[in-house]
Amino acid sequence: MTDFDIEEELKKLPAKPGVYIMHDQNDEIIYVGKAIILRNRVRSYFRESTTKSLKIRQMVTHISWFEYVVTDSELEALVLENNLIKEHLPKYNTLLKDDKTYPYIKVTVNEDFPRIFSTRQVKKDNAKYYGPFTSANAVNDTIELLRKLYHIRSCQKRLRSGESDPDETCLYYHIGRCLAPCAGLVSKDDYREELSGALSFLNGNYRPLLKELSDRMTEASEAMDYEKAIEYRELLENVRQVAQKQRITDSSSDDRDVLAMARDKESVIIQVFYIRGGKIIGREHHYMKNAADSTDAEIIRDFIVQFYAGTPYIPKELLIPVEIEEKELLEEWLSNKRGSRLSLTAPKKGKKEKLVELAEKNAAIVLRQDIEKVKSEEARTTGAVRELEELLSLEGIERMEAYDISNISGYDSVGSMVVYENGRPKRNDYRKFRIKTVEGPNDYASMQEVLSRRFEHGLRDMTEQALNSFTRFPDLIMMDGGRGQVHIAQEVLKSLNLQIPICGMVKDDNHRTRGLYYQDQEIPIDKNSEGFKLITRIQDEAHRFAITFHRSLRSKGQVHSILDDIPGIGEKRRKALMHYFESIEDIKNADIRLLAEVPSMNGPSAEAVYHFFHKESES
Fold this sequence. Notes:
Strand content: 15-25%
CATH topology of the largest domain: Nucleotidyltransferase, domain 5
Helix content: 40-55%
Distance between the termini: 68 Å
CATH superfamily of the largest domain: UvrC, RNAse H endonuclease domain
Shape: flat
Radius of gyration: 34 Å
CATH architecture of the largest domain: 2-Layer Sandwich
Number of domains: 5
Low-confidence stretches: 246-252
Number of helices: 21
Oligomer: single chain
Largest sheet: 8 strands, mixed
Number of strands: 20
Structural class: alpha+beta
């Protein structure tokens, strides 16, 4: 907005609550904030005398213009601020990276014959919800156990009214997982009695069930019904496993979430413990972006707003590690979402403080593990790319494309294109090519066709302003081979007036990667370096992708064996060759002496195979 005068617009700001939105010169939203009084808050960004964090000072230098929305209250401003942050993900706002929904166990107690099933949505529908759980597998295992123990239905099948009909029963009834209310085979009272046991289980009351199963196991064993005894023993073990996962943390039956954090210069992790009915039912950690320059209180505040705006269930209490500003405002907002009173507590002593300390210890462990993991991952990806840049004297390598030709076990050649961005495979951009213009095993001509089709397609799509993976050209092309393959690629790019660096991935006599061929020189590379390991991964991936495509065509009967086209090589010798060698590539690289050693082969047939694969180099 070129005609925007910041000084003049600052004078127009109202003394009302609302949300302000900062834009850069490209009209990108770079920051969203809320204020009780817009005039005071927005002006403070542009006053030299105001103390600002490094992040805010940097943000201010990029502000080209701002806008604002007036609200009736600070609470409305809080909600609008969070919605805008989630929609636009501004560069200078502290952002919650995780956007997950968690599974719950839902019991439809409002129905005549309640169901038990998993859900990721909590509604105000008078049903009972248990959770959230951090593992969908744990939810499914618990539901399956409840069906074994109490035979509660989970389907939405229409229930019968009137006389029972055993013919209406389904498989779950016959395997003892359901009481078949849909067929009218159980009364409401009997069904409710089973349901009460399931609800007691979900509330963590395991002891009566453990005793009952133990007694039943003993009775079955004494009656020499060993099959039934084993069944009770397995159920007993399943219940114990579930019980052990939910250790008691305090004597209170209230639901609460415990929040803690760990941070270093760059990373911030928030740990959340979910306590339901006095038991930890799960824990989860979350990453905060753009938080390195924020205080602990600011980070916790931003996390609460962003996380609980999208969480279907809000407990009665949040335990937090530090006192935060706007505590009363957040309590009001969360209480409105919850439908009843919520308290935000920063405990200083007692059991609640111990819970926060436990969460902090877990957050610190996750952070240490994460730092090592991140460092390792960066070394093998972006770090490896930086090594290649230094090795090739290039800058700004982000996207790399590697190509390979395959005609293993087949005459028709196929080509593969694999894509790596920042050292990681980008599989959505991989492409396959069936060679259309080349007859026989001519790798050079096949590669020329593949590259021509790939870049002509890209140039055509650019002209038509299409947006796809072909319109993104690589910063580096990597050929599976040395001088010959590189020169083929150079010829294609030259014919299309394209300038993209090309290097070959050279193999040794044992077909193992040994170095790079770049600008008519073979460049050795340390085999223990991350750059070398990345080259090897790329080369293997291009080869694997081509072979997989070729094999899929062959399985459909679309490719016949290349060996069928060699004079003097019938079915018996073809099978012997394929049994002796691992691939056509190995046959192609074998000398006459080695070929003659294959069972069923002789001198003339070995010469025929050798000359068939080397006729190009001999001519």
